[in-house]
Input
Amino acid sequence: MAASSSREDIETLAKMEEGAAHDHEHGVEDIEMVNTAEEEEENIDKCMDPEIREHAATVNDPNRTRPKLRSEMFEQRSTLGNYFIHLASSVGDLGSVKLIAELHPSQVLKQNNEGNLPLHLAATAGRLSTVSFLVEISQTNNYNLLVEKNTRGNTALHVAVENHHQEVAKFLIYNDESRFSPNMYGKTPLSMAAEAGNVELIKHMIFGRPSWLAFDNFPEEPWEGNSVLRAAILGRNREIIKIVLLCISSSLVGATDEEGMTPLTLGAYIDDFETVSTMLATVGGSAASNKEDKDCLTPVHLASRKGHITIVELLLKHCPPPRDLLDKNNWNILHTAVWHRRDNMVKYILGKFEFQELINQKDKFGNTPLHLAVRQGYPKTVSILASSKRVNFSVRNNEGHSAMDIARMSLMGEKTLFLRRCSEQFP
Output
């Protein structure tokens, strides 16, 4: 995938280990978010050895004396699958993490019952210094912890973004490419940041990439499905949408999810006029606006289904004649509006001369929009259609039934009388 971009230099990481000696002595990390000692204790796995709980509980309580660490404590595992290094990483006990990693380097590879490494827990809690050390020690020992996933398919970067730890996420972004790695829900860290409307982090992910990674080397697969553009649209974040389209690739407009829905279709569906306009202007319009989902629905069908008149007007400027825009039932946009009871859209289409071919157009079962309105039992929609001089009451479907026949069969006395009067008034 090719795209162009201006390059921003990634910000130099703020000093990370001021007071490193202090960390060794006391094992306490400066963290982004200050928690009370009581909150920290709530995060401690109560099933651990009492000495381990005691040690972890003293991390943020300088008035308590720590018990001496014993090597056998490092191999104890709680019912949640946590080792001592997990607890130390989670509460920011950098001194203990360093000690364990130096004595038993493979401890950094330990997973708990949820598949979390110590790095995952440090990233989840926003412990920047601990994250930095674990990344450094893993690189020294040729462990690629940055791509390791837990049972939800999340990397350390996923959980840092998920828990809004900005500085930890920035650090991880610069050190690996898991920003493109989807979890079990198809979400990448990049799409998660877009969903959250985190413009600053998006810029770091796109512009703060290592120099060796050119834009044309960006992997293709992560843009499919839960793409960053789709996430930005759902978050209605204009700035992120523009960054993605201009700096990554306009081809994302045509990227489909598992339902075959494109970002353009999504924008039309949620009535985001500005975003739809931006995407159409970026890609030139026609190809993306005519792309169908698995039900053969185009963006204009979805907009009609929701009654979004301004979106329909915009999309039709880039589409074939409306009579040729048919879904798998051969429904035009009037059929769709009638079926979904979008009376505002029905009135709009009936009032436009250029849409006259749609009014009595048949679907694959021979039903006109009027047939559908009667069949569904929508009195107001029937009234709107039947009041138009251009509606043909005598059209019969593939079963040989007119709309009035269907009304009679459905025992809709009032509708039958109304249709009879309309047919007499507008023969």
